[in-house]
Amino acid sequence: MKTLALIEYFNRILPLDEKEIAFVEEIFKERKVKKRQFILQQGEICKQNTYVLEGCFRMYLVDPNGKEHNLQFAIENWWIGDIGSFHSNTPSKLNIEAIENSIILQVKKEDQLKLFTNYPKFYQIFRVLTENSMVGLQRRVLQNISATAEERYIDFLEKHPNLFNRISNVQIASYLGVTPEFLSTIRKKIAKS
């Protein structure tokens, strides 16, 4: 039962009863994704909310000059998706790509709405998820406007030690908003101190 990890995840927020568990098992669909495979590409509408069971993903934007800007990474027990596209039913400006061979659980928007309607407890669960996401986003924005690149890198290492060996330095640099060369300089400086 692949949904077990997701059910345990939900139970840590609010315990589920048997009917709620059965509905989660019914509406969340397992999908295997190969490394470098997309679950969302720019121009598509994000029609599913995605929970990562195994593997690693990145969400990124490609600017008009062809440069990639990583916005988010997601590993086991994390959620990933273009929330703006998902809720407004508009084409996404983002790409979501597997960095590793992965297994995910996805729920369609209409099924997630049924989850909320049939089992109001999930409003509370997803409210907590959304609030946690907003806190993280606000923290990242504040850090980007007030911290040095070195401070952002150190914070990234401290907050995400389990990501460090799973993504490339180029992807970390993109996430931090620096060039790979500048990140290399930062890493050398930190290693010396």
UniProtKB/TrEMBL annotation:
Protein name, UniProt field: Crp/Fnr family transcriptional regulator
SUPFAM superfamilies given in the database record: cAMP-binding domain-like
Cyclic nucleotide-binding domain ranges (all copies): 12-110
InterPro entries on file: cNMP-bd_dom, cNMP-bd_dom_sf, RmlC-like_jellyroll
Source organism of this protein record: Flavobacterium soyangense
